[in-house]
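Page 47, continued from p. 46.
Same chain as before, 342 aa.
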Amino acid sequence: MRLLLLTLVLTAGAAAAQSSRPVEELRSTGGLPPHVVGQFREPTAFQQAPSGDRYVFDRRAHRVFRIGADGEAAELVRIGPEDGRLLGASAFHLGPDGRFVVADAPEGRERVQIFDGDGARLGGFRLPGRAAPRITMGDLVLSGIASLQFTGRAIVMSQPELGGLITAFSLNGHPYHTFGVFRRTGHEADRELHLALNSGLPLVNPAGGYYFVFQAGTPLFRKYDDSGQLLFERHVEGPELDPLIAALPTVWPRRRDDGGRELPMVPPTVRTAAVDPDGYLWIALSVPYVYVYDPWGEKVRTLSLRGAGILNPTSLSFAGRDRLLVTPGCYEFTVRQDAARP
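Result:
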């Protein structure tokens, strides 16, 4: 009995130490110059290709830019409803071979397009049905595909309508692997709200397998192996999140979309997330902090990122082991901390 009590005390002490980990403030060490960033209306992805070229996805302007060795931004993909252009753009991801994918929704019909590094369209596909608003971020309503990952051979998305948390699509649009059991929400009778609370960020782990970060409701994440088998689930906790969790609603306001559907307005508790080359999960919260979890699900760092001011990231991306690229602002941070990586 004494051994059991000691174990419980030590476990509680470790959990308390984890949740009270001090906040580190990281200051930007580089990024795009202000005259380049000033060309963008709302940069929501900033990623670097193996060639060294950097790419910026401007969601509000429905455009993709490449920044080469000369430091200037070249427009690769422009606004428009036709194939090879973007309208209602929602998500971008740069693949490991320099190709990239973009999700948009001309006339409310979800579309995914694949481009080469120069912006030439290589292919794409459309998803059936109309894009349903899932997450509301301020005055921005994220409809349909709000996040995707491109592996070079597959496109991984959150499409809860297909019955799982994560779905892998072939490059011609065939959904060939759906996995991840929905979490219980208490709103199973309200299909749209239940799906919104099971929407999130599917992330390919460079070390193997996948993470899924729930974007709304009680914040938590799950880790899966390559086959889609659940490895573990962890709640995202910390004093920085306590007021946000305490204020989570039990009833969500609704709005009518263009198709006449009444849909819940669900704000995010997580804005974005990424996995670094060592398999550590970085989660940017709706409050301006980033939590870092090791491959075993333990929180090892709590960060505050400072550019011109404290940032509330809309995207995180790694350019190597120790360089983090962040929007808004298109900043670069040096993040390596060997002591935090056993």
